[in-house]
């Protein structure tokens, strides 16, 4: 529906958000994600940030991490989601933040190439108190953002430990390091030795 470009699609998709079938809700979010309308973006970000309007759209008193994560990933399809704001809010929540949601917002930030998310992603990537899969998601997102300024964080992550975060840091370095970072290449060679 979203690809049709019809402005009425937003209302149809929003109506489907209350459907009891999870797949129908997710398809509606995907439709909103590819629709070129400010109302669609606002709806997705309201769901993703667990705002009152987002809960109203889904006709729920609270939103699951799965619904929130799907909304955030869908909003990233157009590169317009405010993933930095949501990620910072989740990090402030501390241990109460859903690990699934943290991973989804990292993916959304990476897909949307959200450079404004770099500080929060960097903090999450280096937080050894977080599970490896969450740190890996943050490192992968840093690589997808593609900003060479993250190379020092990626180098530091190589020493943070854990097989999966190390692999994610290596791949991210391959996406971000360039000829101006010869020490990044030297560090990667050290890992191979």
Topology at a glance:
Blueprint: H1 9-16, H2 22-34, H3 38-48, H4 52-58, H5 65-76, H6 83-92, H7 99-111, H8 118-125, H9 132-145, H10 151-158, H11 163-176, H12 182-192
Helix pairs in contact: 1-2, 2-5, 3-4, 3-5, 5-7, 6-7, 6-8, 7-9, 8-9, 9-11, 10-11
Helix fraction by DSSP (H/I, runs of at least 4): 55-70%
Unreliable stretches covering 5 or more consecutive residues: none
Task: Give a quick account of the main beta sheet: strands, pairing sense, barrel closure.
Answer: none
Mean pLDDT: 84
| Shape estimate | elongated
Task: Tally the helices.
Answer: 12
Distance between the termini: 52 Å
Number of strands: 0
The structure class reads mainly alpha
Strand content: under 5%
Q: What string gives the helices and strands in order?
A: HHHHHHHHHHHH
Rounded to an integer in angstroms, the radius of gyration calculated over CA atoms is 18 Å
Task: List the defining traits of the structure above.
mainly alpha, elongated, 12 helices, 193 residues, 0% strand
What would your notes on this structure say?
- The chain is mainly alpha-helical.
- Helices cover 67% and strands 0% of the residues.
- The protein has helices spanning 9-16, 22-34, 38-48, 52-58, 65-76, 83-92, 99-111, 118-125, 132-145, 151-158, 163-176, 182-192.
- The chain starts with 8 loop residues before the first helix and ends with a helix.
């Amino acid at each position: 529906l979203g690809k049709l470009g019809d402005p009425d699609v937003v209302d149809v998709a929003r109506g489907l958000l209350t459907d009891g079938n999870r797949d129908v809700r997710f398809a509606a979010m995907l439709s909103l994600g590819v629709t070129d309308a400010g109302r669609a973006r606002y709806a997705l970000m309201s769901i993703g940030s667990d705002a009152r309007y987002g809960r109203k759209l889904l006709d729920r008193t609270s939103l699951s991490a799965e619904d929130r994560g799907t909304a955030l990933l869908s909003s990233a399809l157009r590169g317009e989601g405010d993933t930095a704001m949501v990620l910072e809010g989740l990090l402030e929540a501390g241990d109460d933040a859903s690990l699934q949601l943290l991973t989804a917002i990292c993916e959304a930030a990476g897909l949307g190439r959200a450079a404004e998310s770099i500080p929060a992603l960097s903090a999450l990537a280096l937080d050894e108190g977080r599970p490896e899969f969450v740190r890996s998601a943050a490192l992968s997102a840093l690589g997808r953002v593609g900003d060479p300024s993250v190379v020092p964080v990626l180098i530091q992550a190589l020493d943070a430990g854990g097989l999966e975060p190390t692999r994610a840091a290596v791949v991210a370095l391959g996406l971000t390091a360039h000829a101006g970072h010869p020490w990044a290449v030297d560090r990667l060679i050290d890992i191979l030795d």
